[in-house]
Specification:
The protein is an alpha+beta fold. It is built from four helices and seven strands. A hairpin with a 4-residue loop joins strand 1 and strand 2.
């Protein structure tokens, strides 16, 4: 089913991707569910986008991945509206926001701006822009995955921090047994169509 309208944690043993503009492919789009905003005391729907960086390899020769968590909103000055708008070089109108399907981002190439936090402990996605033409044929190492509630168990290949975020959501705790059983969400080919097809 379509999904319509974080940063990578670091410790002393965690490798961080290099800062700067990196070729990336969106490999995981996960509905994180609703989470309580401690400031407003209101629940907000969250979505995680994870990008593989095929040209940036870790010590074991696997490509780095980097994630960002977005509030599922394209109104006002939302970060999701800014990042995805610059990624596709097109303004997301209020009308387009109503029919936006996050899952159509899976498998698409982008240029990812990697930026470290001031204390150097976090690698964040500071922005997204269109892919370099030379990077559009880059293959990925990881499976391309989309997941939302009601699609069975969380895919095993997702990292523990994404699973923990989903399982702390209001939906997960309310739906219980509906999120068990076989996973239906693993996909082999990008669901969003060709690179030139806009998802909105």
């Amino acid at each position: 089913m379509p999904l319509k309208v974080g940063s990578t944690q670091n410790n002393s043993e965690y490798e961080m991707p290099p800062e700067g503009m990196q070729a990336g492919v969106c490999i995981w789009v996960v509905n994180l569910g609703e989470h309580l905003n401690p400031r407003s005391q209101k629940y907000q729907p969250k979505v995680s986008l994870t990008f593989e960086l095929p040209r940036c390899l870790m010590k074991d020769d696997r490509p780095f991945v980097i994630s960002a968590q977005y509030t599922n909103s394209f109104y006002g000055s939302s970060i999701a509206k800014s990042h995805i708008g610059t990624w596709f070089n097109k303004r997301i109108t209020d009308e387009a926001a109503l029919s936006f399907d996050w899952f159509k981002l899976a498998g698409r190439h982008a240029t990812v701006q990697v930026q470290y936090s001031d204390d150097g402990k976090w690698a964040n996605i500071a922005g997204l822009t269109p892919p370099n033409p030379a990077d559009k044929d880059l293959a990925v190492f990881n499976d391309i995955i989309t997941w939302t509630f009601g699609e069975g168990a969380l895919p095993q290949s997702l990292p523990d921090w994404i699973k923990a975020k989903v399982m702390s959501s209001r939906e997960w705790n309310e739906q219980g047994q509906q999120n068990e059983g076989p996973t239906q969400s693993d996909i082999i080919s990008p669901p969003g169509g060709g690179e030139e097809d806009l998802p909105f």
